[in-house]
Write a structure and sequence with these properties.
The complex is a heterodimer. Chain A is α/β, with parallel strands linked by helices. Chain A has helices spanning 52-59, 87-93, 115-126, 131-144, 150-155, 163-175, 193-210, 221-225; strands at 10-21, 27-37, 41-46, 67-69, 74-77, 80-81, 98-101, 181-185, 213-218, 230-235, 238-239. In chain A, the strands form two sheets. Chain A has a six-stranded mixed β-sheet, sandwiched between helices. In chain A, strands 1, 2, 4, 5 and 6 form a five-stranded antiparallel β-sheet that branches. In chain A, α3 (115-126) crosses α4, α3 (115-126) runs parallel beside α6 (163-175) and α6 packs parallel to α7 (193-210). Chain B is an all-alpha fold. Chain B is built from eleven helices and no strands. Chain B has helices at residues 2-6, 13-35, 67-103, 105-120, 123-134, 138-164, 168-175, 180-188, 193-216, 228-234, 244-271. The longest helix of chain B has 37 residues, at 67-103. The chains are: A alpha/beta, B mainly alpha.
Chain lengths: 241, 275
């Protein structure tokens, strides 16, 4: 099945995305197509094991070892083909252009490194900024996400924060770089309902402010529908709706 | 990290004891020759095998050499060998362990193949063989014992790296666009410091004992020069007549080990952000 590429406004365009176990094995994602316009939000919804997470990971070439995208898969990001991109070019896109937030806030911050260091990491890597500038930006961002006493927070270690706060910090450190696209892989699944709302609201606010498009991955259609207009539902590796 | 460790209030007993013993050892190693009342090699045959007396505060050995002087200058040899060997084994072992555990694939297979070959020999036997090749000298002992203990470090580090590399913060840092080398150095290594420190302090003790075993076999610190290990082994035939010759260096080794282990324990606590 060939679907024509999206119009000029399209930032991310995924065509015929198939992921198989090994070069010739079973397909866990089968000919998935979707488009995402810049600044827009799209949700990928499906049950556990429907391949939504792997589809999202393949955008950044983050598939775990035996899984590969098939040769005819096509992932275009701002006119650039992302499949088969060299490691160095890929590193320049990761973080700077496409950010990602993971499911488990309890383990996605390094327990041995301070919050400040972890927030500074991306800026140091992708932007030419002095230490003072980086610190100012981080403080402003922490203030923005309503963390009390940002100065103290920078010197603190992740275990001093609750799950919701950690996810907000994760979000903040990814959004510090103002990426063009944010991939949020079930960002609220590990949190309770009230905190879920807070984190999602914050995510929507931050991405709107910066014109960042969002690819939201979730299994909760009800929750997603409150935020997103475009939904692709996946089941056993296929887009069904 | 160090600043944080020093600025930490409320030192516990293990920290105080560990720092005191390690500090005393370092002082003894540096100033030992000046503290010693006699030349550690000077013979005084009339007082051979004599117990503690005003003339020789801690007695004299089978050649009448002053035990206090020999302990003081042996401290430098033993401490230097043990520290240098631990550092050598830790650095090489950590580098190979992190590479093998993090990169996996053929790098892992190649490193572990060589490592398992090393592990297949009993440590002392391996050190003995290496000593025969390198020659009996201080540097020789350091390299030989270092290589003999390295495989254990590689194993321990590789195991903890393998569990850490699957954590999400490693993935998160990759998503940020970090290169693999930075991920290894900044995110993987700091999280396996605890087992490395525990291993280092334990190894310190093994190495002092291994050095004495090598000396006993005639491949350690060459004879007239004292080390705690060779004092222990040369005193063995006189254990009945002059037990202080065994007890004193033995006591020095035990207290040092206890102190180093407590210090290691304290350092591990300081480096753990959760404490």
């Amino acid at each position: 099945m060939l679907v024509p590429a999206g119009d000029n406004n399209t930032m991310l365009s995924v065509r015929n995305l198939s992921i198989s176990v090994g070069p010739s094995g079973k397909r866990i994602v089968d000919e998935l197509n979707f488009d995402l316009a810049s600044g827009d939000m799209l949700a990928l919804v499906g049950e556990s094991g429907s391949g939504k997470t792997m589809a999202a990971r393949s955008i950044l070439s983050l598939l775990p070892a035996p899984l590969v995208t098939t040769p005819d898969s096509c992932i275009r990001f701002e006119g650039r083909e992302l499949t088969g991109l060299a490691a160095k070019a890929l590193r320049q896109i990761r973080g700077a252009q496409i950010g990602m937030v993971f499911q488990e806030p309890m383990v996605s911050l390094n327990p041995a490194v301070t919050i400040g260091e972890q927030m500074a990491e991306g800026l140091r890597l992708h932007r030419a900024m002095s230490r003072a500038e980086i610190k100012d930006r981080s403080l402003a961002m922490l203030d923005r996400i309503k963390i009390k006493d940002p100065g103290k927070c920078l010197a603190a270690y992740p275990h001093e924060f609750s799950g919701g706060m950690r996810q907000r910090i994760m979000l903040a450190s990814v959004m510090l770089l103002k990426p063009r696209l944010l991939i949020a892989d079930e960002p609220t699944t590990a949190l309770d309902t009230l905190v879920q709302r807070d984190v999602l609201d914050l995510m929507v606010e931050l991405t709107r402010e910066n014109g960042t498009a969002v690819l939201l991955i979730s299994h909760d259609l009800g929750m997603v529908s409150q935020y997103v207009n475009n939904v692709t539902v996946m089941c056993e590796g296929k887009a069904v709706e | 990290m160090i600043g944080r460790a020093l600025g930490r209030p409320g030192l516990k007993f293990n920290a105080i004891f560990g720092i005191a013993v390690t500090g005393a050892l370092i002082l003894l190693a540096v100033f030992g020759p000046w503290i010693a009342p006699y030349d550690p090699l000077k013979l005084d045959l009339p007082s051979r095998l004599s117990g503690p007396s005003p003339l020789h505060l801690l007695g004299a050995d089978e050649f009448g050499r002053d035990v206090l002087s020999r302990l003081a200058s042996g401290a430098r040899t033993s401490a230097w060998i043990a520290f240098a060997t631990v550092i050598f084994a830790l650095i090489t072992g950590t580098v190979f362990g992190v590479l093998a555990g993090f990169l996996r694939g053929w790098v892992d297979r190649a490193i572990m193949m060589v490592n398992d070959a090393f592990l297949a020999f009993p440590g002392l036997l391996l050190a003995l063989g290496l000593m025969a090749v390198i020659g009996a000298s201080r540097e020789g002992i350091i390299v030989a014992l270092g290589l003999a203990y390295m495989p254990i470090v590689v194993r321990v580090v590789r195991a903890s790296v393998m569990s850490i590399r699957e954590r999400e913060y490693v993935e998160a840092s990759r998503v940020m666009g970090n290169s693999e080398i930075i991920i290894m150095a900044r995110h993987v290594l700091p999280n396996c410091v605890a087992p490395i420190i525990v291993l280092a302090t334990t190894m310190f003790g093994w190495i002092i004992l291994s050095e004495s075993a090598l000396s006993f076999l005639g491949l350690g610190v060459p004879p007239p020069a004292p080390s705690w290990g060779n004092m222990l082994s040369t005193a063995r035939p006189y254990i009945g007549q002059a037990p202080h010759l065994i007890i004193l260096p033995g006591l020095c080794i035990s207290i040092t080990l206890l102190g180093i282990n407590m210090l290691g324990d304290a350092v591990r606590d300081w480096l753990d952000p959760k404490m």
